[in-house]
Amino acid sequence: MTELDEPAEALRPLLFSIAYRMLGTVSDAEDIVQETYLRHQRALAEGTRIESTRAYLSAVTTRLAIDHLRSARVRRESYVGQWLPEPLLTDDTEDPAGHAEQADSLSMAFLLVLERLNPVERAVFLLHDVFGYGYDEVARIVGKSEANSRQLATRARRHLEESRRRFDASRQEQQELAQRFFAAVTDGDVDQLVGMLAADVVVHGDGGGKAPQWMEPIVGVDKVSRLFANVGRQMREMGITMRLREINGRPGALVLDPDGKITNVFVLDVADGAVQTIRSVINPDKLRHLGPVADVRELMRRHRGRQAPG
Asked: Name one Pfam family in it (predicted).
């Protein structure tokens, strides 16, 4: 099948992939893809000649994402606490060979590094380095010259190389360590946790002011091991369980209340045989695409009530 007669609907996964990496939010990426298809339908109805459906849809998606990102940056300046991307489940991939590359460009660490780029730099880098578009096509999409697009990509790579951390553990090694880590959390085993954490391990939490969460990063083996041993104790008392899943290409877990509703998501970065970073997303607005979401404040209120004397 040639690019000219490729069905527009078949391009939906590609368009979502571009939009999600640009924005780091599932709901906004889905909205942008939907708007892209509406514009495509209007263009066809108006008799617009579209030589390449793929090029047209990619361009519209990217431009909409750039515009959205410019306004999103203003909103993020007033965001309560730490901002993290919306978690995306990735353990159902049917392409093991392409998993490593996909996992790298979907990881929360990578998406957070992209936040350092301006919207056009981000678009140029993603389109060329991640999705394989030629500089001539990238230039048409972002409205820059080909030479300028090359310069933007080079500058983006320099920023990224200064910030990106290499995660050399295999997928199996990451999963095995994650299984042991979450088991130790469930058991509240501080000694086991200490043995799995990097010396400079750091924990980030995103509650967005809508659910209780750590407002600042928590750093160091001692603090993090005791924190998660306590988290495990509270989970046992409240009947909360964890279901291991791969999230944004990294090992993680969905945390579920006794009714099976999602309370939060944990995602781990693993390197050199240790857990380097732990990210927790508990903002309910960032979890709704994953299923029914629990009222964490209500769960904690009930828990405190059961613990109250008398």
From this structure: Sigma70_r4_2
Residue pLDDT, tens place only, 226-239: 999 999 999 999 99
> pTM of the full predicted structure?
0.89
Q: Which of 86, 171, 160, 94 is nearest to 126 (CA)?
A: 160
> Are 91 and 244 spatial neighbours (Cβ–Cβ below 8 Å)?
no
Overall average pLDDT of the 188-200 stretch:
95
Task: Judge whether 109 and 144 are in contact, CB under 8 Å.
Answer: no
Query: 129-137 long-range contacts, Cβ below 8 Å, gap at least 24?
Result: 129/153, 129/157, 130/21, 130/105, 131/14, 131/17, 131/18, 133/58, 137/55
Tell me the torsion sign for CA atoms 169, 175, 180, 181. positive
Burial of 224 (0-12, 13-18, 19+ CB in 10 A): buried
Is residue 244 a contact partner of residue 168, using CB atoms and an 8 Å limit? no
Query: With contact defined as beta carbons under 8 Å apart, do 272 and 198 qualify?
Result: yes
Cα 300–Cα 303–Cα 307 angle in degrees, nearest 5: 140
Domains assigned to the chain: 3-163 (1.20.140.160), 171-307 (3.10.450.50)
**What's the pLDDT tens digit per position in 167-184?**
567 888 999 999 999 999
Q: How far apart are CA 280 and CA 269, in angstroms?
A: 12
Strands (DSSP E) found in the chain: 197-206, 218-219, 241-247, 250-256, 262-271, 274-281
Q: Which helix (H) or strand (E) holds 36?
A: helix 26-45
Nearest to 141 by CA among 42, 54, 212: 54
Segment (H or E) for 27: helix 26-45
